[in-house]
Amino acid sequence: MLKINDLHASVEGKAILKGINLEVNAGEVHAIMGPNGSGKSTLASVIAGKEEYDVTQGSIFLDEEDIDELAAEERAHKGIFLSFQYPVEIPGVSVTNFIRTAINETRKAKGLEDMPGKDMLKMIREKSEMLEIDRKFLSRSLNEGFSGGEKKRNEIFQMAMLEPKLAILDETDSGLDIDALRIVANGVNKLKSKDNAVIVITHYQRLLDYIVPDFVHVLHDGKIVKSGTKELAHKLEAQGYDWIKEEVGV
Amino acid sequence: MNLKEKLVSSFMAFEDTVDVHSSVHDIRTEAIKTFEAEGFPTKRQEEWKYTSLNSILKHDYSVFPKHENDLEFKDVKKYFIHDIDAYKIIFIDGKYASHLSQTTHDGLDVCLMSSALTKPKYKMIIDNYFNKIAGKDSLSSLNTAFSYEGAYINIPKNKVVEKPIQIIHFSTGNEAATMLQPRNLIIVNENAHVQIIERHQSLTDNPVLTNSVTEIFANKRAIVDYYKIQNDRQSATLIDNTFVNQKQESLAKVHTFSFGGKLTRNNLNFYQNGERIDSTMKGVTIIGDKQHVDHNTLVHHIEPNCESHQDYKGIYSDNSTGVFNGKVLVEKLAQKTNAFQANNNILLSDKASINTKPQLEIFADDVKCSHGCTIGQLDESAMFYLRSRGIPEKEAKALLMFAFSNTVLESVKIPEIKQRITKIIADKLGVSTGFDL
Description:
The complex is a heterodimer. By secondary structure, chain A is α/β, with parallel strands linked by helices.
């Protein structure tokens, strides 16, 4: 589904990604771990199409299509979803109307009519119940004054509504207490299928106890320096990153 | 002959058409003297530092335009809020257009200034209200000197007017250049409620200069809800001078939506003559090209326990320029005043500019006054957030601008007006629909 070849990216002339290779197939969950500043969030943003990042070398393919030239919204229309580490507060736009606009713009891009209002409401009800989101919350301004946990839950709610092919969860566990973490992880697990894939970016093993990865990759200084299965995440949790640095000689 | 000379000499011709022995005419005569002495304002005056009328005044305006009222409703329907039942006072090139209007004397007066100024039965009201709060500055004086036609609205005590009142001034461009000076008088008596919509609209690209004066009296516990829709052609200039006098416990709100015109200057003045008064002025300005919009506001807090709220949002693109000059004057007697002022702006181009200047003069010591102004660009991280959810760039921009304007839009009490404004904004931003926020 996603194939990244020798990806180099920089921001304002500073190289951040220095040759990423990654292949994610439908039905898989990949975790990307690594110390601060290793390029995890940059990788997420580059896949989602943030314009501030320049791809200087390499390519990103989604279903055999090179998406490097596509705008963020076009990537979203093709099924890429990024759950933000720091969701942006947008006063004046309610959660409901925002998600309605996002869904209908995506449908428009696919040549479909707007989703009928009652279908939309039904879907909103189902997904918000699944994530234990209070209905009142949905009429509030997007992310404005939300607690850290509410913001993350709202991100997963949007993911549930948009039903992406590839979801990238950037530090979705930060700012969540254990109950919220469980709710969010349950939500993600319910959305998982053999047709979609998830990339979980995290510092900690904690989230991976709930969203169990098929593969774990360690990012260091803009490169994936080690890949393995979920046991790798346990080892990182127990021993930190230093042993990897020694092993790969950095 | 420049425009000032032309106007001063035209005054004599004007005198041939009106009753020169009336008390109103004494006021006119005084006013033309003021205008003659002061002339048009220039950038040397502090209040006009950022707005120049030079390029506007160079046209050879026809001061008394010929009138051929051949406009039909279907030609101008789109400028009406036509999906609601409303009283209508419509003018074409300054002349009353009865076939487009719906006036009344049934339980309230929605009619013409020309009647009010000339008919004996209105004399007492005119003596009590006419030109009592209009400014004595040169432009208001110029309007006063030629005051003859406009809307006259008088809402009696306890009357809640069910239908809004629309005042529309059309200019046809039958003349190469037209100058219009409508004069409106609105009296809302004790405990009465009214909603008014005002619009100036030119129908061709011939230059039009409108110098309008509106006096609004909100008496004890009256509620006045006033909407100004400014979305005129690129050839039109509007100088709007509005004066609101409030008595105790009255509530007056003026919303100004400025989306078009070559140059728009809004002089909006509130005077609080009583306690527990609430004055609200809000505005959304969205302009581009070389358009210029200047909001010059004043709230004069004269008595204690009153409030004022100002919330102006501006979005400027291309080479457009904006001015916000908001003056809040709190007299020594006006203790426990709450005065809030906010002016937030987004500049979408490097060449657009806004000059914003809050001016607080506070002589009382127990007051709450706040003001804030911001100038920024569109938030890039918010743009990426919206686009990553599948909302295209243009729509994402529009959504952010709607959200930015929403504190003003949400206080519009007439749903049809809100829809209309939303539609105008959507058209300006090039998106297919407004966002139901």
